[in-house]
Amino acid sequence: MEKQTPSYQDASMPTYGRIDLSFVKGEGCYLVTDDGKRFLDCASGIAVNTLGHCHPKLIETLNKQSKMLWHTSNLYRIPEQERLAYRLAKACKLDQVFFCNSGAEANEASVKMARRFQYRRNKVIKTNILCAEGAFHGRTLGMLSATSNPVYREGFGESVSGFEHVSFGNLKELRNAINEKTAAIMIEPIQGEGGVNVAAERYLLGLREAADEFGALLIADEVQTGMGRTGTLFAFQQSGVQPDIVALAKGLGGGFPVGAVVAREEVGNAMGPGSHGSTFGGNPLAMAVANCVLDVLEEDDFLQNVRDVSSYLEYRLNKLLVTYPKFISQLKGLGFLRGIGLTKNLTAADLSAALRTRGILTVPAGLNTLRILPPLIITKQEIDVFSDALTECFEEAS
After folding, report:
1. Of 68, 100, 193, 374, which shows the fewest CB atoms inside 10 Å?
2. d(CA 28, CA 25)
3. Between the CA of residue 381 and those of 119, 306, 307, 385, 391, what are the distances in Å?
4. Residue of 252, 334, 361 whose CA lies nearest to 32
5. How far apart are CA 139 and CA 81, in angstroms?
6. Is pLDDT of 4 > 60?
7. Catalytic residue among 39, 98, 117, 136
8. Average pLDDT for the chain
9. Contact 391, 358 (CB under 8 A)
10. Exposed / middle / buried, residue 120 (Cβ in 10 Å: 0-12, 13-18, 19+)
């Protein structure tokens, strides 16, 4: 009997609907497969590769740090962690930072902090977190309960108590839902997974007012929107709203796993030793890379260039909207977190697949939306490549 060659792929749990592409190299905004095909990456590892692939400054920083020190644990001071904490706190106009490894962890920690703060302040149990319908805050058991889509919770038993969902953008419904047990309001300035739904400025201002009126905290989930993706360092800055807690991850490490929670001093001080922790959170490797990402984002004109080039992307997309109303129902998003809302004549999955045949990577999202998440270093010329490929797809679908 002929011996079968084992498949390494079979050893991976089937938790992902993987596309049959295997990338072995990255160059700027491009990924290269094992058979040499080049793809313009307009997905960025789902809003992670802030500076594209193999950015020379990130390579230099990681190589240098890897030869010095990788891990010590948080039993000891970590100078690069202290430096990054100071920079993030200052940028958010907040005071203290906790470091972890992912967005779900950052959101989990945000909820713990809000509940602990309310307990320390009021000496009563205020545990309810008001979330929005269409929200996606992560895949841990706790954050599944904060996420509104029941598909993600199927088969995992009862939801964790203390989470309630109200209509996204509906201030009246939110205010009616606040009660004596409400600890915090948790909101994404732009719902990514939910369909690239932008929170209106007046809605965010209303959330801040409601939180202040009823003694609740305001948590901004900036896991996908933060670190320059919307044209400012954080999306909440465009509304003038000041959150009490900000959750970060994804783009913070530019591809290296790192998450963070930035909070008011009173919130942070409610978390004493042993109240929370992370073995790997804030390790020297992650902190060196994240500081480097922030260095680049803070360079003169970097974010201005993001705004300029993303405006050009918006211009190209608006031309497609006018030309192909049969397929495009609306355009959504800000900066380089954009969504093309599609009509019933074309699915986001089919459009994403058609783009892949033309060497373009994108990400479908909720409400039949194609998500566009390029690295922040993408050029107008590369936007033209993407837009021309979209045109070909719509023409073919016609």
Report:
1. 68
2. 10
3. 54, 14, 15, 7, 15
4. 361
5. 26
6. no
7. 136
8. 95
9. no
10. middle
Residues 95, 203: Cα–Cα separation, whole Å: 25
Query: Residue 361: enclosing H or E segment and its boundaries?
Result: strand 360-361
Q: Give the separation between CA 17 and CA 364, rounded to whole angstroms.
A: 12
- Bigger pLDDT: 216 vs 4: 216
Second-level CATH architecture of 59-297? 3-Layer(aba) Sandwich (3.40)
Which one-letter DSSP state was computed for residue 128? E
The two tokens of residue 333 are 């998003």
Which residues neighbour 335 within 8 Å (Cβ) at sequence distance 6 or greater? 228, 229, 230, 231, 232, 306, 307, 310
Upper half-sphere CA count for residue 174 (Cβ side, 13 Å):
27
Query: What is the rounded CA–CA span in Å between residue 134 and residue 167?
Result: 8
Greatest Cα-to-Cα distance within the chain, rounded to the nearest angstrom? 75
Catalytic residue selected from 41, 99, 250, 332 = 250
Whole-number Å distance between alpha carbons of 114 and 122: 12
**Predicted local distance difference test score (pLDDT) of residue 152:** 87
Which tokens go with 281? 């959170």
Please say whether the beta carbons of 352 and 17 come within 8 A. no
Does pTM surpass 0.85?
Answer: yes
DSSP secondary-structure letter at 14? S
Kindly state the helix (H) or strand (E) to which residue 342 belongs, with its residue range. Answer: strand 337-342
Is residue 250 part of the annotated active site? The answer reads yes
Q: What is the pLDDT of residues 265-318, one digit of tens each?
A: 999 999 999 999 999 999 999 999 999 999 999 999 999 999 999 999 999 999
For 189-244, the pLDDT digits (tens) are 999 999 999 999 999 999 999 999 999 999 999 999 999 999 999 999 999 999 99
Here the tokens at position 35 are: 């058979």
Q: Which long-range contacts (CB under 8 A, 24 or more apart) does 13-19 make?
A: 19/356
Is residue 279 packed enough to be buried (19+ CB in 10 Å), middle (13-18) or exposed (0-12)? Answer: exposed
> Given 39, 221, 327, 386, which residue is catalytic?
221
Q: Is the pLDDT reported for residue 1 higher than 50?
A: no
Determine the Cα–Cα distance for residues 52 and 45; give it in Å rounded to an integer: 10
Is 136 a known active-site residue?
yes
Segments making up each domain of the chain, as ranges: 59-297, 301-333+378-398
Element (H, E) at 175: helix 171-177
Residue 5 confidence (pLDDT) = 58
